[in-house]
Design a protein that fits this description.
By secondary structure, the chain is an alpha+beta fold. The chain is about 35% helix and about 20% strand. The strands form three sheets. An eight-stranded mixed β-sheet has the order 3-2-4-5-9-10-1-11. The protein has a three-stranded antiparallel β-sheet with strand order 6-7-8. Strands 12-13 form a two-stranded antiparallel ribbon.
Length: about 400
């Protein structure tokens, strides 16, 4: 919105007008086809897929969130002349978690973008600098809503080549909201340098070296977080109407959501890579010599994901309306629940399906409630067909409709 392309904002923004209802048409333009939305095909949840696998970077750079696969792709593409610049997110000088979009044209600038900045970033604001410097071959690193806006105006950018490397994104927010979350989750919020909600049902938080946290690494069960307190002021309202956690319009996506926790710190842990088209394959080929690659894992578990989805949606709804617990569970209770779910619940790709279904139903409820009455038609247009299919699956007995009628 901060560039000359603001004239296209109604057609480009993922949260205005038809919003994410445009995903299917954009997939055809970007990938040459839409995702297969049949119930038995994982593309309905994960998007257009050529290949999907687990990977680690065998020689990670310092300061990265995981093992630095995205950073490595950017470095290789820049140093080998595949691109002239990389649009990425660095940090503000005095705040390592505050996002600062940059156009990186040197190795040091790319390295400065290592690590996740878990708050809003106006990444497309850099586009005018690309034009001013006359660059024609660009890599863009971003999350789903940023990528959708970029794809919507791509034809007007005059680029010879555009590579889009995406990451997963779930429940972002502003810098103040991030502070609120960290103060609730960590016993040393001021030293946190990164965190992730892992498949062991715990939040894993990395800290600066020499912090008061043992080994500079903290693990907190989800169930110990104060849900009522965190239900507002942490997750941005637009994020509650997002239906693209898997970044369906990127060429290649690197994320964590589908990997079981392997009892190691994030900087040694595998992530999952989704290749969507030949440009994505090209990016993977650039770093092939640095990747340790594995097949994905898929465990349904004794506790099926469907029951967990329903329970999580209902608990989240109670918290959003201030009817959840004011305090998190005692630590020993939270640890017990997390341990049981880790071993008995869904893991690997199945955990990712649980997360996607829960969040899309939750966001469907928010979207329909926000645009109720005369605007219901607009809300329905915003929701992509693959998300509607998930809602329909859980609404066969009217359970989702019942939640829609809950009084605020």
């Amino acid at each position: 919105c901060d560039t000359k392309h603001i004239a296209s904002v109604k057609e480009a923004c993922a949260f205005l007008g038809e919003g994410m209802g445009r995903m299917g048409a954009l997939e055809e333009v970007v990938h040459g086809r839409r995702r297969n939305e049949s119930a038995e095909n994982d593309e309905a949840m994960f998007g257009v897929t050529q290949d999907i696998f687990y990977a680690t970077n065998t020689r990670p750079q310092a300061g990265v969130q995981w093992t630095g696969i995205v950073t490595e792709m950017a470095l290789r593409a820049l140093e080998e002349g595949v691109v002239e610049g990389v649009i990425c997110t660095s940090a503000e000088e005095n705040d390592r978690l505050a996002a600062k979009p940059i156009l990186a044209t040197t190795r040091d600038e790319v390295l400065s973008s290592g690590g996740v900045k878990p708050c809003y970033s106006p990444t497309l604001s850099v586009l005018e600098e690309v034009e001013a410097r006359g660059l024609k071959r660009i890599m863009f690193i971003g999350v789903g809503c940023q990528v959708q806006a970029l794809r919507s105006i791509e034809s007007a950018l005059g680029l010879e080549k555009l590579y889009v490397v995406g990451t997963n994104c779930t429940d972002n927010g502003d810098r103040e909201g991030l502070d609120k979350f960290l103060k609730a989750a960590s016993s040393s919020p001021e030293t946190v340098v990164g965190y992730e909600f892992m498949q062991d049902y715990r939040v894993h938080l990395k800290h600066t070296k020499g912090s008061t946290i043992e080994n500079d690494y903290e693990e907190v069960p989800y169930f110990c977080l104060p849900s009522n307190h965190l239900a507002h002021g942490v997750i941005g309202e637009p994020c509650r109407s997002c239906f693209d956690y898997t970044n369906g319009l990127a060429d290649v996506v690197v994320g964590y959501m589908a990997v079981p926790w392997r009892r190691m710190e994030m900087t040694k842990h595998a992530t999952y890579v989704t290749v969507r088209n030949d440009r994505g394959r090209e990016m993977v080929d650039l770093v092939r010599d640095r990747l340790s690659r594995e097949r994905v894992e898929d465990h349904r578990g004794i506790i099926g994901r469907e029951g967990l989805v329903v329970q999580t949606v209902e608990a989240d709804d109670l918290a959003y309306f201030g009817r959840g617990p004011d305090q998190g569970a005692p630590r020993f209770v939270g640890e017990l629940i997390a341990t049981l779910l880790e071993f008995l619940g869904p893991r690997g790709m199945e955990f990712a399906r649980y997360s996607i279904e829960y969040h899309y139903i939750r966001n469907y409820l928010h979207t329909m409630r926000t645009f109720d009455g005369v605007k219901t038609k607009d809300a329905s247009q915003h929701i992509p067909s693959y998300a509607k299919a998930i809602v329909e699956k859980y609404n066969k007995a009217g359970d989702v409709d019942k939640l829609l009628k809950v009084e605020k």
